[in-house]
Specification:
It is built from 9 helices and 9 strands. The chain has 314 residues and is α+β, with helices and mostly antiparallel strands. The N terminus is likely disordered.
Length: 314
């Protein structure tokens, strides 16, 4: 694909965002999360194929802390997060504030008909910027969120709060999805990882096998940077459910080594076919309750997209 001319100040030696994509970013950032994302996506041109760009399969049954939610509500949550990510990548911080207001407080209606194209443009923008540039851009916010996380960790006194989401899928198997998930991590398929949720900015597998993650967790507002070690299961602060024989689990630590949480995602096959995902993420107990509530939606979006990608691959 031929790239159009760049606009704005250039960064020597780095790929900059194209005119059309920057127009999308600025337009999406400035607009509310209702119908304007659709308009912005259309103005950006054709959709760019990427893992997770299609909608989660409508037959998925999703439960947030035991309460079933419809696919439309999950898609609406994702649509509200796209302008926030768009504004952040465009360094439009007033736009970030407006997007967070729409996503976390106003929660107005969100148009989702063209969610796929909007996802694809956002994915291409991440790719154009590149991992190093995104790390550099988000470093000041990460410094603030990192200090806040360590403060919450100290106050929590070893206690943890758990974000809980469950997804039933009528096709595939627990073993098959867990194997696909692990393989994607091992081969460092970055598009699969980052494109699954607008709040993902960087997810890469390092030489030591740990995943570096830069994302906005739940309702945290600021991005955080942490490392997930899937070989460290003994310290995961989420109890194991023996009714789920397949698991993907690991600890989450900041760069300095402090344990700040962990993930324990477990899976079991359903009697009539398909499988259930029991998705759990631990945070320091002192984090605001909004973090836990919103991270349930985050899990619903990312795993809905990952399960859909697994089904397409199979």
């Amino acid at each position: 694909m031929t790239r159009s001319a760049t606009t704005g100040p250039s960064v020597p030696g780095r790929t900059t965002v194209t005119t059309n994509r920057r127009r999308f970013l600025l337009g999406a950032a400035a607009a509310s999360a209702s119908g304007s994302v659709v308009v912005a996506a259309r103005s950006a041109g054709s959709a760019l194929g990427a893992p997770g760009s299609a909608a989660p399969a409508p037959q998925l049954r999703t439960f947030l802390d035991g309460e079933r939610v419809t696919p439309d509500r999950i898609r609406a949550w994702e649509a509200r997060r796209i302008p926030v990510a768009a504004a952040r990548l465009a360094r439009d911080y007033p736009g970030v504030a407006r997007g967070e207001l729409a996503a976390l407080i106003d929660r107005g209606p969100a148009a989702t008909a063209d969610l796929g194209p909007a996802r694809a443009v956002l994915a291409r923008t991440r790719a154009d910027l590149g991992v190093e540039r995104i790390r550099e851009m988000l470093a000041p916010e990460i410094a603030v969120s990192g200090a806040a996380t360590l403060g919450a960790l100290a106050i929590s006194g070893g206690r943890w709060a758990i974000a809980a989401t469950d997804i039933d899928c009528p096709r595939g198997t627990a073993e098959g999805f867990a194997a696909w998930f692990t393989r994607e991590r091992d081969i460092d398929d970055r598009r699969t990882w980052t494109d699954a949720c607008p709040d993902h900015y960087v997810i890469v597998t390092g030489a030591d096998g740990r995943q570096e993650v830069i994302e906005v967790t739940g309702g945290a507002v600021l991005p955080s940077r942490f490392f997930v070690d899937y070989t460290d299961r003994a310290r995961v602060p989420v109890p194991r459910d023996p009714g789920y024989p397949i698991e993907v689990a690991g600890t989450a630590s900041v760069a300095g080594g402090d344990l700040i949480g962990g993930v324990r995602h477990q899976f079991r096959n359903l009697p009539g076919g398909g499988f259930r995902s029991r998705l759990r993420v631990a945070f320091p107990a002192a984090v605001p309750g909004l973090y836990i509530t919103e991270h349930r939606w985050h899990l619903a979006v990312e795993f809905g997209n990952w399960i859909s990608a697994y089904l397409r691959a199979g």
